[in-house]
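Technical note accompanying the year-one report. For the benefit of new consortium partners, we illustrate the data format agreed upon in the data management plan: each record pairs a sequence with a structure-token string. No post-processing was applied to the example shown here.
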Amino acid sequence: FPFATVEPNLNVRRAALLAGPVGSQRPLACQGAEQFPEARCNVSAIKIATTQAELEAIHRFRYDVSVHELCRTGGYIDHTTGQLRHPLDQTGVNIAAFDGGRIIGAVRQNYGPAVRFGALASFYSIADGVAAAEAYVVITTGLMVTARERGRITGTRLACAAYAHALERNIRCGYIDCI
């Protein structure tokens, strides 16, 4: 299901909602978190991986969560390197959430022209009209957080960061899942 079908004139208003109340220095996802300790916000930074070292750190994070926490096997898991490298990483934008210097969550986005929808179009049931306008479509996948962060706001913060990044690129339709 599309998580966003954004009319161009709504971009500014939606971006403002993500930023939080006017004059606030805290993102909306952390507003009021102190009232709900179980939803505490442990995120010290959210950033896009721009170097190979950062991308490999995300691959190791995904491996640790997939293998050690979720007991998954197969797929794109490489036990010799201790990394989970998905083919979508090659053309994707990878975003990580940090608690200090430690990655506690990650998400990947692939934008239309770079991803060549192909089989993904049928997997996500992307309508022909939407696929034809692929420059305005994003597929967001690989959303993972550590066991400690599940049930907290970290996954929401990552999804909001991905959403804000998509708005900056004038995306009008998006699909999100955790594969």
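Partners are asked to follow this layout when depositing records. The beta strands are 2-5, 45-48, 77-78, 83-84, 93-99, 102-111, 137-145, 173-176.
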